[in-house]
């Protein structure tokens, strides 16, 4: 099985969620006894460290698909459909690249329209899930979102375990189809480099997209995060209703900056308009996997916890010792965050070399 893995970037590096997706994809490549190949697919220009990471994670080839600016999920799905159509026996109207095929040698030996199964894998991020949902609609192939494991159980059959209900339930499923589309849970698969690096040979190809494919298109900005994204930050300082106001976030932002992290918030905070939805942690926000989550004035509702359960360590600050976040945290500080955070800031400033 040849596996195409969609790559998302975080600044000048491969996003952590994509490294996890590459790890799962690598295990699937060739596991059905057919031709093996791990092919990374990107829609951005690739800074040098990205190529090195893709090689370290075992990518044999890298397709750099041009012609789509910004985030355009249907157009990017069309580009992926074109790759799949060129590699496999998939009939997709309008999906072919100009010329109808990939350059000679662009696919691993043995891969091609020979009846072998192929898979397209992406990170289970908002973008990854949306693009693969479009790809499923374009190709008619089945898609399984937020997979934790996936293994080929023979030609055309993939056994998988995937998260349902925001990660509260694990479902065992079997995909029985010529080719399959999978996204990888962002908090459940550890990113592991390959035992031997791949060649990561870069092929530049142009996507054949129509105007209607580009009807939905966004150009992203990441203002105010200092470069680190909420999904990949190693430290997240979370604020909930207990922060009290939009202005009340200033000490949390100062603390996050001192710890090299970013601020995340609960849904109450976004509903109040204190901070934008892009900062929300949870079932309907971002899933985070930091080393440290400092949850301040957050009760720890199940929908919030669904987004932060992947944190390695949780420290909660809350006036209510029985709040769910306090009972689930590794360390709980019972107190008013308006007193505790200034004390923490003072301690950190006192420790800093003058
Ligand atoms: C379908 C659905 C999806 C949802 N998705 C999400 C989601 O993605 N993310 C999300 O966060 N929520 C989500 N929610 C909402 C969720 O159920 C909760 O309502 C929300 O998380 C509560 O936010 P909170 O903890 O900030 O507020 P509250 O539950 O009101 O908790 C505030 C906490 O602050 C403490 N506190 C108050 N003052 C202080 C102080 N001075 N110092 C210290 N502690 C203090 C209180 O003791 C309390 O524990 C969703 C709900 C639904 C129905």
Automatic annotation (TrEMBL):
<feature type="binding site">
    <location>
        <begin position="297"/>
        <end position="304"/>
    </location>
    <ligand>
        <name>FAD</name>
    </ligand>
</feature>
<protein>
    <submittedName>
        <fullName>Electron transfer flavoprotein subunit alpha/FixB family protein</fullName>
    </submittedName>
</protein>
<comment type="subunit">
    <text>Heterodimer of an alpha and a beta subunit.</text>
</comment>
<dbReference type="InterPro" id="IPR001308">
    <property type="entry name" value="ETF_a/FixB"/>
</dbReference>
<comment type="similarity">
    <text>Belongs to the ETF alpha-subunit/FixB family.</text>
</comment>
<feature type="binding site">
    <location>
        <begin position="266"/>
        <end position="267"/>
    </location>
    <ligand>
        <name>FAD</name>
    </ligand>
</feature>
<dbReference type="GO" id="GO:0050660">
    <property type="term" value="F:flavin adenine dinucleotide binding"/>
</dbReference>
<dbReference type="InterPro" id="IPR014729">
    <property type="entry name" value="Rossmann-like_a/b/a_fold"/>
</dbReference>
<comment type="function">
    <text>The electron transfer flavoprotein serves as a specific electron acceptor for other dehydrogenases. It transfers the electrons to the main respiratory chain via ETF-ubiquinone oxidoreductase (ETF dehydrogenase).</text>
</comment>
<dbReference type="InterPro" id="IPR029035">
    <property type="entry name" value="DHS-like_NAD/FAD-binding_dom"/>
</dbReference>
<keyword id="KW-0285">Flavoprotein</keyword>
<keyword id="KW-0813">Transport</keyword>
<feature type="binding site">
    <location>
        <begin position="280"/>
        <end position="284"/>
    </location>
    <ligand>
        <name>FAD</name>
    </ligand>
</feature>
<keyword id="KW-0274">FAD</keyword>
<dbReference type="Pfam" id="PF00766">
    <property type="entry name" value="ETF_alpha"/>
</dbReference>
<dbReference type="InterPro" id="IPR014731">
    <property type="entry name" value="ETF_asu_C"/>
</dbReference>
<feature type="binding site">
    <location>
        <position position="241"/>
    </location>
    <ligand>
        <name>FAD</name>
    </ligand>
</feature>
<dbReference type="GO" id="GO:0033539">
    <property type="term" value="P:fatty acid beta-oxidation using acyl-CoA dehydrogenase"/>
</dbReference>
<feature type="binding site">
    <location>
        <position position="318"/>
    </location>
    <ligand>
        <name>FAD</name>
    </ligand>
</feature>
<dbReference type="GO" id="GO:0009055">
    <property type="term" value="F:electron transfer activity"/>
</dbReference>
<keyword id="KW-0249">Electron transport</keyword>
<dbReference type="InterPro" id="IPR018206">
    <property type="entry name" value="ETF_asu_C_CS"/>
</dbReference>
<dbReference type="InterPro" id="IPR014730">
    <property type="entry name" value="ETF_a/b_N"/>
</dbReference>
<dbReference type="Pfam" id="PF01012">
    <property type="entry name" value="ETF"/>
</dbReference>
<feature type="domain" description="Electron transfer flavoprotein alpha/beta-subunit N-terminal">
    <location>
        <begin position="3"/>
        <end position="218"/>
    </location>
</feature>
